[in-house]
Amino acid sequence: MVRPAKSEEEHRPDPGSEDSDHRGFANAAWAIPSYILSGMAVYGGLGKLLDHWLGTSALFPIGILVGLALAIYLVFHRYGR
User: Fold this and answer.
1) HEC sequence for the chain
2) How many whole angstroms separate alpha carbon 15 and alpha carbon 42?
3) Is pLDDT at 76 greater than 90 in this prediction?
4) How far is CA 33 from CA 1, 12, 55, 59, 70, in A?
5) pTM to 2 decimals?
6) So what's the pLDDT on residue 54?
7) How many degrees, rounded to 5, is the angle at CA 18 between CA 36 and CA 79?
């Protein structure tokens, strides 16, 4: 039994190839802003809820800054090497 040759579209790049490196960069380019925005949103949201519950107004901006700091730490830990 003879198998047909794979077309160019069906070819998957080797893990160490240039195309594979490009995909890794593209994934990181989407992941980094996602970590930063989601960290700010989650911790800012927690600060907003605590502000509402406690009747204060300082925890929302503090939550945003804490979320930003933790997200930057996560990005450096994951991609900074």
Assistant:
1) CCCCCCCCCCCCCCCCCHHHHHHHHHHHHHHHHHHHHHHHHHHHHHHHHHHHHHCCCCHHHHHHHHHHHHHHHHHHHHHCC
2) 34
3) yes
4) 50, 28, 32, 23, 13
5) 0.69
6) 96
7) 25
Residue in the structure block whose two tokens are 């700010």: 40
Distances 78 to 4, 62, 72 between C-alpha atoms, Å? 41, 24, 10
Fill in the amino acid letter for 47. G
Indicate the domain borders of the chain: 33-79
* Torsion angle of the four alpha carbons 76, 67, 29, 73, in this order, in degrees rounded to the nearest 10: 0
